[in-house]
Design goal:
The complex is a heterodimer of chains A (about 280) and B (about 325). The model of chain A has no long low-confidence stretch (mean pLDDT about 90). Chain A is mainly alpha-helical and about 280 residues long. Chain A is globular and about 70 Å long. Chain A contains 14 helices and no strands. In chain A, α4 packs across α10. By secondary structure, chain B is mainly alpha-helical. Chain B folds into 2 domains: about 55 residues, no CATH class; about 240 residues, MetI-like (MetI-like fold, Orthogonal Bundle). Chain B is about 70% helix and about 0% strand. In chain B, α3 packs parallel to α7. The longest helix of chain B has about 35 residues. The N terminus of chain B is likely disordered. Chains A and B meet through α1, α4, α5, α6 and α8 of A and α1, α3, α4, α5 and α6 of B.
Chain lengths: ~280, ~325
């Protein structure tokens, strides 16, 4: 209903959408095909790589044995989960307090949150890096997780979500003897579920794929996350120049996130749309 | 995300909180619930940001031993350094290509998808690059753009054109990175526009039909485009900030080369701060970056505040 509808404009619009969709999906397709093709045959002048069974075994074998790829992925998983849980645990109570409780310092905190929204993530990284270096925490999970456990964006998002929540429900809960903390966890968290899902996707995508911060604080291969691991694989040992194995690694690193998104996409979009009301 | 910057400042005024709770108990609970966030906000965002501001006026290097205040020397060096001027130009070029393309394409896709029977399929396809590991997919792009035997050049040769050394020719490298940047951002913008489209009341389209705007472009210009204006402002600022912060593809594919043609601001900041450990100079770069982003955000808040007032006054 956004545009008028005639059959010729439908055909044009499908043509435009399909062309774009092919461009969007093509690198994924190429990555999967190349990950199944023997290294020597990937650049043989044909348009697309032609998969073979031994190519597949070779590439995935190299990706899993030449570098500790599973270890990288486990690191990434631990780091993303820790960041997400801490972000939500800190942001929900704060968002609730900012939306529904009046307390001294609240206006200042609101201004602080707004200011925090404006600060690009790269700005605080130099002092944080120096602090981590001085306390001997480089090359650790703490270094990967610590700078991100406060998400100003999450606080702001949840606060906006809670502002419209009916006060009567909260008052009834208080009369029933709920503490403010249990209100935050047992009433506000479920109420904010769509926002929690949307935020989780943003957070996990951002930290699983982040290269900048891991590149700054990690030099020990054992502590590398998936993205840094792939970047390191490109340059180190058997990975360098082995496009087939690199693509196998790429498939393994990309698959969890893409499947997570496919599972969650309905909730994710609902969260975004609800948030606008 | 869509809502984050769409809120007029006036909505942040104190609201009336729950009435059954005695004021003191409420104040106590509010403080307890917000203390962890407050401390972390100061320790990890605001404190370090202030520190960076001070460091930008010093000659600090990694150990912070023997820091001296050197006034605005870092800033004057930034302004006179041909290398930095080059990375500013590269960034501007990248932003100038990525921003209009990623926004226009995202809007077009959202508008076309909104009435398609295959909406879910299209939406998934366009969103995939947003969820993908950019490091892994950048490697796939590198292979597709391979100077002689990649898919892109095989295709060009089939069409009778001569091969292009996309990523290794200083004249094309930044455009190749921009193409990857557009590819990654279109889906994100599409989702935000879709969220915006879903809030447009159907009655507006019915009214437009009565007024004679019952087809394609007319409807779009009369209803869709004005109603999308707040989302568009938000999408524009987000896209500019993200384009300005391009890092992964540069770090993985070109390391700023060939011949400095892809050295962008954030990559320069990374090199100065974390590879050469020129902390003071890197701080000056990041402070300038911050000023730029703040300026953009303020402009956006102004625009959305004016819009909110305009709507409150009955619109039109």
């Amino acid at each position: 209903m956004i545009l008028g509808q005639s059959s010729s404009s439908r055909i044009v619009s499908h043509a435009v959408l399909v062309t774009g969709a092919i461009i969007m999906v093509f690198p994924f397709l190429w990555m999967i095909l190349a990950s199944l093709t023997p290294q020597s045959e990937i650049f043989d002048g044909s348009l697309l790589p032609t998969p073979t069974l031994h190519g597949a075994i070779d590439n995935y074998g190299t990706a899993l044995s030449a570098i500790p790829l599973l270890r990288f992925m486990a690191n990434g998983f631990v780091v993303c989960l820790a960041i997400l849980v801490l972000q939500i645990a800190i942001a929900i109570p704060c968002g609730y307090a900012l939306a529904k409780l009046s307390f001294p310092g609240r206006p200042i905190l609101l201004v602080g949150v707004l200011l925090g929204l404006l600060v690009p993530v790269q700005i605080p990284t130099i002092p944080i890096y120096i602090a981590l270096a001085k306390s001997g925490l480089l090359d650790s999970y703490a270094a990967l997780v610590l700078p991100w456990i406060i998400s100003v964006f999450a606080i702001f998002l949840f606060r906006q979500f809670f502002v419209t929540f009916p006060d009567e429900v909260l008052d009834a809960a208080r009369l029933d003897g709920f503490s403010e903390l249990s209100i935050a966890w047992r009433i506000m968290l479920p109420a904010a579920w769509p926002a929690v899902v949307s935020f989780s996707i943003f957070s996990i995508v951002a930290h699983w794929n982040d290269l900048y911060w891991p590149m700054v604080v990690i030099t020990n291969p054992d502590m590398m996350t998936a993205s840094l691991g792939i970047a390191y694989f490109r340059q180190a040992g058997e990975g360098a120049g082995n496009v087939g194995a690199l693509m196998a690694g790429g498939v393994l690193v990309t698959a969890p996130l893409v499947s997570f998104f496919l599972l969650m996409q309905k909730h994710f979009i609902r969260g975004l749309v609800l948030g606008r009301h | 995300m869509a809502l984050a910057n769409d809120i007029p400042l006036s909505s942040l005024a104190p609201n009336t909180a729950g009435s059954y709770r005695p004021a003191r108990a409420q104040a106590q609970a509010g403080i307890i619930l917000s203390v962890p966030a407050t401390l972390l906000l100061v320790a990890l965002v605001i404190g370090p940001a202030i520190l960076v501001f001070f460091l930008s006026f010093t000659n600090a290097s990694l150990g912070l031993a023997g820091i001296q205040f050197i006034g605005v020397a870092n800033y004057t060096r930034m302004l006179t350094d041909p290398g930095f001027a080059q990375s500013l130009r590269n960034t501007a070029l990248y932003v100038a290509v990525v921003v209009p393309t990623a926004i226009g394409w995202g809007l077009l896709v959202a508008v076309l998808i909104a009435r398609s029977r295959f909406a879910v399929l299209y939406r998934t396809a366009y969103f995939l690059p947003v969820a993908a590991s950019l490091v892994a997919l950048a490697t796939a792009w590198e292979a597709i753009l391979h100077p002689s035997l990649g898919f892109a050049n095989t295709l060009l040769q089939l069409l009778g054109a001569s091969p292009v050394r996309f990523l290794s020719d200083p004249a094309t490298a930044i455009y190749a990175l921009a193409a990857i940047g557009v590819w990654q951002l279109v889906g994100f913008n599409m989702i935000l526009f879709l969220a915006g489209l879903s809030t447009i009341p159907e009655e507006l389209y019915e009214a437009a039909t009565i007024d004679g705007a019952d087809r394609g472009l007319k409807r779009f210009l009369l209803v869709t485009w004005p109603m999308l204006a707040p989302v568009t402002v938000f999408v524009t600022v987000m896209t500019i900030i993200r384009a300005f912060s391009v890092f992964e593809t540069v770090a993985v594919l070109t390391q700023g080369g060939p011949m400095k043609s892809t050295s962008v601001v954030l990559y320069t900041f990374y090199e100065e701060g974390f590879r050469f450990f020129r902390v003071g100079y890197a701080s000056a770069i990041s402070v300038s970056f911050f000023v730029f982003v703040t300026f953009l955000s303020l402009v956006q808040m102004r625009v959305s505040e004016r819009r909110a007032r305009w709507k409150a006054n009955g619109g039109q």
